[in-house]
Every structure is written in C-alpha cells, then in structure tokens.
Amino acid sequence: MPWDLAYRASKFVPVHTVICLMKELQRARKISDGVAFAYKLNPRAYLVVLAIGVVKGSGYLEMKLFERLVRGLWLPASNECLKPCFTTKASCLIAAAFLLEKLGRLPCSHDGAFLAAVLSLFCFK
C-alpha cells in the first residue's frame, strides 16, 4: 500500500486492539473445536484430547520441530516441548479447562469457559 497505510492503520491502538481480540477469539475457538472433536473420537483418552487442543491452539509452534526435521535443520535449543512459550502454555491450560467443562467438572457453561479463555488470552498477551 502507498505510504504504508496498512501498517499505520494496524498500529493505531483501537484497530490493533480489535485485530488482537479477533486473533485470540479465533485461537480459543480452535482450541474448543479441537477438544470437542478429540473428545468425541476418544472420550477416555484425556492426554490425546489435551494434545489435540494444544496443537490446534499453537499449531505452527508445535509443528516447527517436525518441519525442521524434514528440512534437516534440527536445533535442539529451540524445541517447543522443552521451552514452551506463552501461547503453548495458555493453550494447554485452556484445553484442560475445556476438557473439564466437557467432563462436567467445571461449574460453568461452555459460553462462560469460552469467554474466560478469550479474555485471558487477550489480557495476558
């Protein structure tokens, strides 16, 4: 775009806030859908359900290891499993909350858990 109008518009605080909120809303929806799908397929495999939720929430960060192995650029110091970033940690906690909500152990509705997930992702990021 001429004169970097798109960059300037995206760095304007209200626009940037809306973009970040939409991104975290999408991430929470992906985690919720991943947990629901994995729970439907494997209702007793809780670790599989959590893993699917984490991969859906922080997909590229988790798949970066396999991509580097295929390309032949494996770097052991940058392994996401050994040093997880905030997105991976938050995806794991939110997937656990959605799993507890599916099991009936969380005393709130799905909408309440989803709202708490979006707000926590948005506020802490």
Describe this structure in words.
It is a single chain. The chain is mostly helical and 125 residues long. It has one domain. Helices cover 75% and strands 0% of the residues. Helix 2 runs antiparallel to helix 3, helix 2 crosses helix 5 and helix 2 crosses helix 6. The model has no long low-confidence stretch (mean pLDDT 91).
Which features characterize this protein?
75% helix, single chain, flat, potassium channel, 6 helices, mainly alpha, TRIC_channel, ion channel, 125 residues
Lay out the secondary structure.
Elements: H1 5-11, H2 13-41, H3 46-57, H4 59-71, H5 86-103, H6 110-124
Describe the structure in brief:
The protein is mainly alpha-helical and 125 residues long.
| Fraction in beta strands | under 5%
Q: In sequence order, what are the helices and strands, one letter per element?
A: HHHHHH
**Rg from C-alpha positions?**
17 Å
Supply the number of structural domains. Answer: 1
